[in-house]
Amino acid sequence: MKRQYRFSGIDCANCARKIEDLINKIEGIDSASVNFLMQKITIEAEDITPEIKNEILKAARKIERDAQIAF
Amino acid sequence: MNKKQKIELYKIIASAVFFALGVILSVLLKKVEIIKAVMFFISYIIVGYKIIFKAVSNIFKGNLFDENFLMTVASIGAFVLGEYAEGAGVMLFFSIGELFQSCAVETSRKSIAELMDIRPDTVNIISDGEIIEKDAQDILIGEEIIIKPGERAALDGVVLEGQSLIDLSALTGESIPVEKNVGDEILSGSINLNGLLKVRVTREYFDTTVSKILELVENSAQNKSKSENFITKFSRVYTPIVVVLALALAFLPPLIFSQPLSLWVYRALTFLVISCPCALVISVPLSFFGAVGRASKLGILVKGGSFIETLSKADTMVFDKTGTLTSGKFSVTEVIPQNISKDELLYLASQVESASKHPISKSILNAVNKKVDTSKVTDIKEIAGKGIMANVSGKDVYVGNYSLVCDLGLDVAQNNSGKTAVYVASQNEYYGVIIISDAIKEEAKEALCRIKALGIKNTVMLTGDKNEIADEVKNKLSIDKVYSQLLPQDKISKLNELLKRKKRGSVVFVGDGINDAPALSLCDVGIAMGALGADSAIEAADVVIMNDNLLKICDALKISKKTVKIARQNIIFAIGVKALILVLGAIGLANMWQAVFADVGVAVIAILNSMRTLYKGEK
Fold first, then answer.
1. Which of B1, B326, B469, B590 could share a disulfide with B465, CB 3.0–4.6 Å?
2. How far apart are CA B295 and CA B618, in angstroms?
3. Which of A2, A6, A36, A38 to mutate to test the interface with B (most CBs of B within 10 A)?
4. For residues B190 and B149, is the Cβ–Cβ distance under 8 A?
């Protein structure tokens, strides 16, 4: 399934790219893209479980402490 | 300002307070060095700790020479030399510049995102008789959704109930609303203006027209323009070179001419401050970024900065005829009556053709403005390969091609325009001829004229039509060169010829996206027109014009020229000012203050300049 979520608190294009790299490494995620311009994150995965969502948020916060994702 | 930027602002204010204290103390207590040093140091640490931290961590990551590094070295150097005020000042002003930049980038990012935020996240559905909101991503094909007046459609669908005016301007740039009734298609991104609509979803969230469009524009950042690539490469070699030069400046003159070391180290540090490439690194991509956003607001989708640049250099524009310069639909373009009025001739023909489903009949019926009275029309008969006859008010009327009037034994001159001619006659009287052709678009003449004025030297038309028709379009629109009676593969070889012959300017192909995908991808910039809903055209083209108005090409050309001009201005201005201050700094005519002001100032001006791409340029 493919899902898109809005995020906030990520304020540089470079950080967005780093977060994208991290999210792509999460197990269970087929592909992820973080769009800095639109402040949206697109996830493709078999199933987006609460655990995966948690992992995604963790990855984002590792780079940007104040990152928020509207799951 | 967001939270982070506010924190940054408070830090700058706090730092500025200590900086001011330091200045006041150094005037009041001339002898107590240590107190003012402490003040300046506190001021320095408040804004500088993060930058120093970044510089150090970047060294470990392998990014040795970035602006954080330059500023850290310069400011620490100033402190070591005992120039406390300058050390703290450099960091303070650098932080002010950074904050300004991040605000400017945020502002333009937001305005672009707003331009493109044309797809709502939620839809209304009816559940147990009540309207509830649901995530649009959860809706499947076949489900029914409600679009209230004033709302944007989130998904593509077909109207089941209701009628309303729909504003498609977000998709096409066309501001005149369209009326939609039961059975009509509603596209995501359009706004429902006045009526309540019940719509059956035909495409899921990620397959909708607007999603396809957004995906393109959102990914456009990957197609970097040459200017953007130049800046990336430039900043990669530039900083190391500057650092080496600074080292040479610091130590060579003292070694060779036994000059005082501190003087030259100070000059070298000034050199480092001014060399920061931020103005370029931020402003150039920002201008292309803004242009892509601006264009999409006008219903022109550009697949990347690189195409904006290529488009600005265009000097040959090749048009496909049918559907691009002409409407692609057959309509009555000329009525030549004999002994009766034009309206009478048309009306008579329409009465005979009233029952026919043939495209030619339809275009004649469309040309008649009033309702056709068929009560006096009887005995409609088709004459195979020739036309139709019917009894109208007691008289046999024949409508058809030239051989039909010849069969009637009438002496009529044949129309030689090469277009479809429909003759109208009775047994013994000739009424006239109706010419049906693919009409040239209304705005075509003006558009071609403006395209010429915008610097396109050659306009070329390619068509599979007969020479006579092609020449007429050529003359009406003052096109420079026309190649007619071409087979699809001939179009490609002609385009190849033009591409081979080109010298400096680029070759643009404009097509309607139907059957010309190869041409669209072959040329330097492929523009697909009227591509709303045509996914294959959107994929093949580099620039997609959502409606089929030719004047949009002029807008696209203007935006591209303006953007490239702004990017160039920024590059020349920033490199020019920096080079000047670098030289002045090296020979001791510019101090660290001037350097930091110049650096921040250039960045601010360049960013403001590049933000112009966002706001104007289409008129």
1. B469
2. 8
3. A38
4. no
Report the distance separating Cα B168 and Cα B190, nearest Å.
5
Asked if residues B462 and B321 have their Cβ atoms less than 8 Å apart, the reply is yes
Q: Which residues contact B17 (CB under 8 A, 6 or more apart)?
A: B43
Count Cβ atoms below 10 Å from residue B430 Cβ, excluding itself: 18
Residue B91's alpha-carbon distances to B73, B98, B267, B274, B386, in angstroms, are: 11, 10, 17, 13, 88
Percent of chain A with pLDDT over 70: 93
Domain B300-327+441-558: which topology? Answer: Rossmann fold (3.40.50)
Smallest Cα distance from A28 to chain B, Å = 20
Closest to B282 (Cα-Cα) out of B563, B605, B617, B616: B605
Residue with tokens 């039909």: B404
Fold of the domain built from segment(s) B122-204? 2.70.150
Q: Residues B228-243: pLDDT tens digits?
A: 777 777 777 777 888 8
> Using CB atoms and an 8 Å cut-off, which of residues 288-307 of chain B contact chain A?
289
Say how far apart CA B266 and CA B592 lie, in whole Å: 8
CATH of span A2-70:
3.30.70.100
Looking at per-residue pLDDT, the higher value among B580 and B615 belongs to: B580
- What is the full DSSP assignment across chain A? -EEEEEEES---HHHHHHHHHHHHTSTTEEEEEEETTTTEEEEEES---HHHHHHHHHHHHHH-TT-EEE-
Q: What are the CB-based long-range contacts (under 8 Å, 24+) for B572-580? A: B573/B602, B573/B605, B573/B606, B573/B609, B574/B279, B574/B280, B574/B283, B574/B602, B574/B603, B574/B606, B575/B280, B577/B602, B578/B274, B578/B275, B578/B602
ipTM over 0.85: no
**Residue B142, token pair as written in the block:** 């076949």
Give which of B538, B463, B462 is closest to B507, Cα–Cα: B462
User: Which fold does the domain B328-438 belong to in CATH?
Assistant: Calcium-transporting ATPase, cytoplasmic domain N (3.40.1110)
Q: In chain A, positions 7-46, which contact chain B (CB-CB < 8 Å)?
A: 9, 11-12, 35-39
The 3-state DSSP class for residue B483 equals: strand
pTM: 0.76
Nearest to B467 by CA among B418, B538, B425: B418
Give how far B221 is from chain A: nearest CA, Å: 9
pLDDT digits (tens, 9 = 90+) for B137-182: 888 999 999 999 988 999 999 999 999 999 888 777 777 888 999 9
Q: What is the pLDDT of residue B23?
A: 87
Query: CA B304, CA B301: separation in Å to the nearest integer?
Result: 9
The residue ranges of every structural domain in chain B are: 122-204, 300-327+441-558, 328-438
